[in-house]
Amino acid sequence: MKVTYIVPVWPPQFATNGIVTYVANMRSGLPERVTTNVMPWRGPEDEPQLYQTTAMERRVHALGLRLRSMLNRPEPENVSMAFRMAGFLRKQKRRTGEARPDLVETEETWGWYQYAAPMLRLPVIVRLHGPFFLTGKVLGHDLTVSPFKDRIEAEGIALRRARFVSSPSHDVLERTRRYYGLALEGAKVLPNPGPWVDAKDTWTLAGSEPDTVLFVGRFDGHKGGDVILDAFARMKPTRRLIYVGPDYKLNRGKETFTLEEYLTRFPDDVRARIDVMGPQPPEVIDGLRRRCRVTVVPSRYETFCMTVVEALAYGSPLVSTSAGGINEIVEDGENGVLVPIEDPPALAAALDALLDDPERAEGLAARGRTYYEERLRPDRVGAITADYYESVVAEHRG
Questions:
Q1: Is the pLDDT of residue 81 over 70?
Q2: Domains of the chain
Q3: Which residues, other chains included, contact 385 with Cβ-Cβ below 8 Å and sequence gap of 6+?
C-alpha cells in the first residue's frame, strides 16, 4: 500500500513545522508493507511542489474566486488545488515510475481537499492538525472578519463532506464536533509518533546544567512564548532560559510585538539571563534537550504537541500547561508537571520547584521516557496507523 502526504514544506530542514515533523516521524515508523511519498506546498525550486502553477491553473483559480464572490459562499480559495494534485501525481509517475498512491493524507486547512477526493478518485484522510477556529483564536485574530471567518466556514463545510477523518487527540476531535455540530462518525484518534531516540542519547541529570530551562517554539500567541518570558521574570535570579524558535510576532488586542520588542519590557538583569538563539536545526535542539535541566511548554492550545513528545523521547524533565491534547500525554506528577494555561506565576513556581529538586526531576524524566517507549515510539504508532490506512482503503473500495 502506498500513502501520499500533503505537507506545508519539504524536506523537513526547510522549516520548523509540527505537520512536517509528524510526517517525517511517521514515515520512519511505518511497517514495510506501507510505502510513502510527500507532496509539498513548497520545497526546492528544482523539485515538484504544489505551489508551482501553470497559466491554466491560475485562470481556473481566478474564475473560482469570481464565482465565490458572486455566490457569497465560504468556499476555499484553493479550488485549483485538486487540479494541481492530479498533475503532481502524473508528473511523479513520469519522473520516478512510481504508481499512484492508494490514499492521500492531508491537514484540514481551508478545506480544499473536498475537491480532491472525487477528482483523484482516491480516499483522502483529513487529519486535524489545527482547525482554525482553535488556532486562530489563540493567535489573537478577529475570527468574525474575512479572511479568518471564511477559512473557518470553509473548513466546516469540507469536514461535513469528509468521509475519513483522523485526529491526534480526543480533545481536538471533540472540540471540532461541538463547534461545527458534526457527528464525524468513524473518526479515528491516532497519536503523533515521536522521533527515534536511542537510550544512550537521552537526558541525564549528571549531563545537564543546573538552573537551565529550555523553550522550543515560535514567538506567537499559540506557543506561549510571551508566557514563558513573563514567568521567567518571576523566577529565582540564578536561573537561565534558552529560547529557541522563530519570531512570528505576538498579537495582543490592537498591539503587535516582535520578540525583541517584548524583551524590552523586562529589566536588564532578566534579559541578560535569556539566551535567544532563533531557529535551530534538529541536531542543535537535540543537544539542548540533553544540556538543559528542564524543558518548558507554555502553549495556550495544542492539538497534541510535538515538543512535549520530543521532551519525553529524550527523557527530559517537563513542565507544561494543561493545554488541549497535552492532557492526554502528560499525567501531572507522573511523567511531567502540568500548570494552568496562561498563568505565569504558577509556571514560574513549578519550574523553580522542579529545578530545586533534582531527584524528582530525574524520576519524571525516567517515567516520561518509559511512556514514549510504550506508546509514542515511531514503530508502535506506525503499526496501528498502518492498520487504519488499510481499513480506509478497503472501505473506499467497498
A1: no
A2: 2-193+378-397 (3.40.50.2000), 199-376 (3.40.50.2000)
A3: 26, 30, 190
